[in-house]
From TrEMBL, chain A:
<dbReference type="InterPro" id="IPR037165">
    <property type="entry name" value="AldOxase/xan_DH_Mopterin-bd_sf"/>
</dbReference>
<dbReference type="InterPro" id="IPR036856">
    <property type="entry name" value="Ald_Oxase/Xan_DH_a/b_sf"/>
</dbReference>
<dbReference type="InterPro" id="IPR016208">
    <property type="entry name" value="Ald_Oxase/xanthine_DH-like"/>
</dbReference>
<dbReference type="Pfam" id="PF02738">
    <property type="entry name" value="MoCoBD_1"/>
</dbReference>
<dbReference type="GO" id="GO:0005506">
    <property type="term" value="F:iron ion binding"/>
</dbReference>
<keyword id="KW-0560">Oxidoreductase</keyword>
<keyword id="KW-0500">Molybdenum</keyword>
<dbReference type="Pfam" id="PF20256">
    <property type="entry name" value="MoCoBD_2"/>
</dbReference>
<dbReference type="GO" id="GO:0016491">
    <property type="term" value="F:oxidoreductase activity"/>
</dbReference>
Automatic annotation (TrEMBL), chain B:
<dbReference type="InterPro" id="IPR036884">
    <property type="entry name" value="2Fe-2S-bd_dom_sf"/>
</dbReference>
<dbReference type="InterPro" id="IPR052914">
    <property type="entry name" value="Aldehyde_Oxdr_Iron-Sulfur"/>
</dbReference>
<keyword id="KW-0479">Metal-binding</keyword>
<dbReference type="GO" id="GO:0016903">
    <property type="term" value="F:oxidoreductase activity, acting on the aldehyde or oxo group of donors"/>
</dbReference>
<dbReference type="GO" id="GO:0051537">
    <property type="term" value="F:2 iron, 2 sulfur cluster binding"/>
</dbReference>
<keyword id="KW-0411">Iron-sulfur</keyword>
<dbReference type="InterPro" id="IPR001041">
    <property type="entry name" value="2Fe-2S_ferredoxin-type"/>
</dbReference>
<keyword id="KW-0001">2Fe-2S</keyword>
<dbReference type="InterPro" id="IPR002888">
    <property type="entry name" value="2Fe-2S-bd"/>
</dbReference>
Length: 748, 177
């Protein structure tokens, strides 16, 4: 029986979202609610000399002003580990307002609590903070004499260096070499819902309504910081207005809300302003990358050297890992990937959609395009020729599909017969170009056991629960589909509940792992419950199924029946009513395969784009995009398509729009609003084609490899390669600037 | 429209000072009158969300750049975060909670679900308020118009093609006799 999985059913939460009925964190109303406003440091480095809160305290409705002088000390600082691990996951290993030191602009230095949102905001403007500024480093250019090689990343989880063979010799001996450096501006997630937390204390127990991609991570992190037993912290999150990584880790404002609520003895809502999101939930760090490809004349890669330099905070060795794909995608004997860092006066950067690999692949796939031109080989053919059949350890891929994606994409896009010469195609004032890139993204497997609970009622309906949260991925819908099929119930008889740490635990839904791990846990719970009810029936003398082999029983529309004699059977409801069971329940769990599984773990895809460039005005417009992906089992093609398309738009945006520059004089971001930090609007986005290549995968949970990231990977490279085809200009800085494509070329 | 220059009109135009303390204000939202006490600096968005419990209108930026707070005032789409609540006295405010008829979703709401024109849903109420208004305004005639006149509503999940398709469907269904 397989009726719901794979069908393009509408979102189960669609009605709530289109009617305004879906409640997000800052919309939870509670009796006695108060409002907090954060005061952020105006300097990037130095000390708070004094805080004069007298004017703020005498303003109307103000209940408290908290600073480093009166905020209690935290009980302990957890290590910075990705939230997928299922441990505490602070966004940075620094907690503010513990002393007078200032490490980055925007660092919370005071917190005002008032009766109304307006009163809190107004009073925050009256807090008079005097600073002593010290020298700062807020951009790579200011710290070039302080570069160091990262030994480990992510709290020691990942090595900073990955090498095999002898890359120096191989590059020196390579008949063809491509070498280039790239610069990337910082990116901000700009999820449309700014992070918010509402904290309520009752009898020493804390309830947090939090806008997070991982309620469990919030629970673990806040409990650790406040020294509370885990049982005393409950986190509730029903709807989250987008994450993209900004809500993957637990940032200081969450715990500050809890501390403020304890201080005033009333519930506190802390909602960050749009501007504060630029300095409160991490960002994609400013970075430079350098790549060298060595190849034979017939287009076989022999060596890749891929280095990344980026700026992190003073307290964490954080870098988006940029070499996970370049080290694996192509069959290359000699490889060297290195992450170097500069400690600077920014907060700790964090996961941003397609973390690391989206820029790592931009570099790799731009260089591959150059190599294709150098050799006179078609870019699609060059990828096919070099695609690795195994991972670098020699393990076969859990599933592949890259070649199929490349071929299908080329066909759908109309790649064949392309004249590769730059500036060969025109449409009026516009130069037209097409470009492509391969895409790959690592499948992450380092989560702990995931659990879910399934319950069937005597009326034959079911409720299935797990402690995940909905932030746009469609997890509520796909988990309902998985549960319905496993229980043999129609979709409308199954309700899926999530968003509460009192439910069985799952990890944060990050790294494209959410759908897979939640589905696996839900499937385990629902299957266990179905098996139990079937076992009950076949051992019940009053059941038509009495004495049957459980393996010969299937369930459809809530009716257990013999597979080869469907007329023999009974419904769950009949069985349960006869047995006087109001409900029946099972918990199920799923544990990922060990990290040593003898399989390569990448999700594959291919990206194609057509651009039009007006060299007189410096305009770049993407006319169409085609993405083909092999993400394993697709639970719901309608929702998966949306997420992949969203990723492709993020890639387009990364290429053409998004970037923030540091104003190094003040150590503050140049942009801190959606008027100055550009994100795509409707008119920026062309029609986008998304196709799937089916691959079977029996290593990943239920064959699901995830669609959260892979749509973005390679998209920016396809756009930039198309810009080269259109203009003959190789663009090595993102976002692409107008002057780079204008005629005559700007001298830069 | 000409400007009324009579003395009576001039008197009516003379501003009345209200505030800074809370003032009694009557807001008419989705056809219902609400008597509330509001400081003059309270935005329509905060009045809807925090005072009236109508949280369908979303706060994405609070500075008029994202469109998530789009509502109608006297039938025109406005950004509720840049509109003072007290200035809406005597006007008809319509929010996402008010576009259904007798509990039946508006065709645009249904079309958004059908075309999966959202993911996280946070921008969706504002998108739908703009989308319905777009057709009324006559700004949904061409694909280019739809893209252009919907560009005040940011969707960070990037469901833009689905949003355009939903609008076209509703427009075409209306035009069919």
């Amino acid at each position: 029986m397989n009726t719901a999985i794979g069908r393009p059913v509408d979102r189960v939460d669609g009605h709530a979202k289109v009617t305004g009925g879906a409640r997000y964190t800052a919309e939870i109303s509670l009796p006695g609610l108060t409002y907090a406003a954060v005061v952020g440091a105006r300097i990037p480095s130095g000390r708070v000399e004094s805080v004069d809160a007298s004017r703020a305290l005498s303003a109307g409705g103000v209940l408290a002003v908290l600073t480093h002088e009166n905020l209690p000390k935290i009980a302990g600082q957890p290590r910075l580990l990705p939230s997928l691990l299922g441990a505490a996951a602070p966004g940075q290993s620094f907690f503010p307002m513990q002393d007078a030191a200032v490490h980055y602009a925007g660092q919370p230095v005071a917190l005002v609590v008032a009766e109304s949102h307006e009163q809190a905001q107004y009073a925050a403007s009256l807090v008079d903070v005097a600073y002593r500024r010290e020298p700062s480093i807020t951009a790579i250019d200011e710290g070039r004499d302080r570069v160091y090689e990262a030994q480990r990343l992510f709290g020691g989880l990942m090595p900073g260096r990955d090498e095999r063979g002898d890359v120096g010799t191989a590059l020196a001996e390579a008949p063809v070499r491509i070498e280039a450096g790239y610069r990337f501006a910082a990116n901000h997630h700009n999820a449309l819902e700014p992070p918010a937390t509402t904290a309520v204390w009752e009898d020493g127990r804390l309830t947090l309504y939090d806008s997070t991609m991982g309620i469990r991570a919030t629970q673990l992190t806040v409990a650790h910081l406040l020294g509370l037993p885990l049982s005393h912290v409950r986190v509730i999150t029903h709807f989250v207005g987008g994450g993209f990584g900004s809500k993957a880790m637990t940032w200081p404002h969450v715990t500050l809300a809890a501390m403020a609520a304890r201080h005033v003895g009333r519930p506190v809502r802390l909602a960050l302003t749009r501007a504060q999101t630029y300095t409160s939930n991490g960002h994609r760090e400013e970075q430079e990358q350098r790549i060298s490809l060595g190849a034979t004349r017939d287009g076989r890669l022999t060596a890749i050297r891929h280095h990344k330099l980026s700026i992190t905070s003073h307290f964490d060795d954080w870098a988006e890992p940029a070499t996970g794909v370049s080290s694996q995608l192509y069959d290359v004997e000699h490889y060297e990937g290195v992450h170097s860092l500069i400690h600077g006066n920014t907060m700790t950067p964090t996961f941003t959609r397609g973390p690391g690999e989206t820029l790592g692949v931009f570099v790799l796939e731009t260089a591959m395009d150059e190599l294709a031109y150098e050799l006179g080989v078609d870019p699609v053919e060059l990828r096919l020729r070099n695609h690795a059949r195994t991972d670098p350890r020699g393990n076969p891929w859990s599933s592949d599909g890259l070649a199929e994606c490349l071929r299908l994409g080329a066909e759908r896009f109309g790649w064949h017969g392309r004249d590769p010469r730059p500036r060969a195609r025109r449409d009026g004032d516009w130069l037209i170009g097409t470009g492509m890139a391969a895409a790959a993204y690592p499948v992450a497997f380092f989560m702990p056991e995931q659990r879910a609970r399934a319950r069937v009622y005597e009326d034959g309906s079911a409720v299935v629960q797990t402690g995940t949260q909905e932030f746009g991925t469609g997890v509520l819908t796909v988990a309902t589909q998985v549960a319905a099929d496993a229980l043999g119930l129609p979709l409308e008889s199954v309700r899926f509940e999530a968003g509460d740490t009192d439910l069985p635990n799952t990890s944060a839904a990050v790294g494209s792992a959410g759908a897979g791990m939640v589905s696996a846990a839900v499937h385990a719970a629902a299957t266990a419950l179905r098996d139990r009810l079937v076992a009950m029936a076949v051992t019940d003398a009053d059941s038509p199924l009495h004495g049957a082999d459980p393996a010969a029983v299937e369930v459809a529309d809530g009716r257990m029946r013999l597979r080869d004699r469907p007329e023999t059977g009974e419904t769950y409801a009949d069985l349960m009513i006869r047995r006087r069971l109001a409900d029946a329940e099972e918990v199920g769990s799923w544990t990922p395969p060990p990290l040593t599984t003898p399989h390569g773990l990448l999700t594959f895809g291919a990206q194609f784009a057509e651009v039009a460039v007006d060299p007189g005005l410096g305009l770049i417009r993407v006319r169409r995009m085609t993405g083909v992906f092999a993400p394993g089992r697709v639970l719901n093609p309608k929702l998966a398509r949306s997420q992949l398309m969203g990723g492709m738009v993020w890639g387009l945006s990364q290429a053409l729009l998004e970037g923030n520059e540091m104003d190094t004089r003040h150590g503050r971001w140049g942009a801190s609003n959606l008027g100055e930090y550009l994100v795509p609007v409707n008119a920026d986005i062309p029609e986008i084609t998304v196709e799937f290549v089916e691959v079977e995968d029996d290593v990943v949970p239920l064959g699901i490899k995830g669609v959260g990231e892979i749509g973005q990977v390679g998209a920016a490279a396809a756009v930039a390669n198309a810009v080269f085809h259109a203009t003959g200009r190789r663009l090595r800085r993102l976002p692409l600037a107008a002057e780079l494509v204008m005629d005559p070329p700007a001298s830069s | 429209m000409g400007i009324d220059l009579t003395a009576e009109a001039a008197r009516r135009r003379t501003p009345t000072v209200r505030g800074p303390s809370e003032q009694p204000v009557v807001l008419t939202v989705n056809g219902t009158h609400h008597a509330v006490a509001l400081e003059p600096r309270v935005s329509l968005l905060d009045a809807l969300r925090d005072r009236l419990g109508l949280t369908g209108s979303k706060k994405g930026c609070d500075q008029g750049t994202c469109g998530a707070c789009t509502v109608w005032v006297d039938g025109r789409r406005v950004l509720a975060c840049l509109t003072l609540a007290i200035a809406c006295e005597g006007r008809q405010v319509t929010t996402i909670e008010g576009v259904a008829t007798d509990g039946e979703p508006h065709p645009m709401q249904r079309a958004f679900i059908e075309h999966d024109a959202f993911q996280c849903g946070y921008c969706t109420p504002g998108q739908i308020m703009s989308a319905i208004a777009l057709i009324e305004e006559g700004n949904a005639e061409t694909d280019e118009d739809i893209a252009e006149f919907m560009s005040g509503n940011i969707c960070r999940c990037a469901a833009y093609p689905g949003i355009r398709q939903a609008i076209k469907d509703v427009r075409d269904a209306r035009e069919r006799p």
